[in-house]
Amino acid sequence: MSTVHVQDCHKCAGCCSDPEVTEEEVELIKEQTGLLRSWFVREVRHPEVTLLMLQSLDDRCMFLTETPDGYTCDIYDYRPETCMRFPTADHQLSLCERERRKRSLPVLNQDTYKCSC
Question: What domain range includes position 47?
Answer without folding.
Answer: 6-102
